[in-house]
Amino acid sequence: GLGSSVIFQALKAGDIDLYVDYSGTLWANQLHRTDIKSRAELVADLKTALAKDNITLLGELGFENAYALVIPKQRAEALGIRTIADLAAHAPTMSIAGDYEFFSRPEWAALQKAYGLQFRAQRQMQPDFMYAAVASGEVDVIAGYTSDGLIAKYDLVALDDSRHAIPPYDAILLLAPKRAGDERLQAALKPLLGKIDIATMREANLRASGNDANSSPDAVAKWLWGKIRQR
Length: 231
Hints:
Number of strands: 8
CATH topology of the largest domain: D-Maltodextrin-Binding Protein, domain 2
Order of helices and strands: HEHHEEHHEHEHEHEEHHH
CATH architecture of the largest domain: 3-Layer(aba) Sandwich
Number of helices: 11
Shape: globular
Distance between the termini: 31 Å
Low-confidence stretches: none
Strand order of the largest sheet: 5-4-6-3-7
Radius of gyration: 19 Å
């Protein structure tokens, strides 16, 4: 339940050994950067900056968890919408829903600036309700999260941000200064790098959202490890 900044400080102080964070979160909160770079460039710059504090950015796990504009796949195909730029032409006739902070976040302002988005109406919703709402047609578009399993469950599609309005949010593995020279630990962790793609993470999140034995943390972890070992 700790926030990213609290966990980062605990890592820096050596109170914890490692954790997973997101590149865009560290870019904004720790480096206080607002410029947007490609996924690879941002991670490379982060790695250099964190090394000054003897923090090791071991690598990316393979998926992002960023905001994305999401619509039903069937409707996207019918309207020929593949990117947010495509969506912009239809936006004046559509409604959009986001979580309770999205419309006040810099990501929303950046999307409006990059694409000139003007929707007929906008609504705030609980994140869990948004996906069912867009699937049923209660709203036309939602600001969802790219790794959410409900995208797969409801047969939705996250539209391509071709103008890179939203910064990358790659899942990255960080090691504390005291673990910088721990070759055994790093060797054990490296098989995870690049092995969890977005489809696999969505499936893991969907499994974890259930209420049966297969949705327990242990069961989902075993399933995910099985997927990783196949790659």
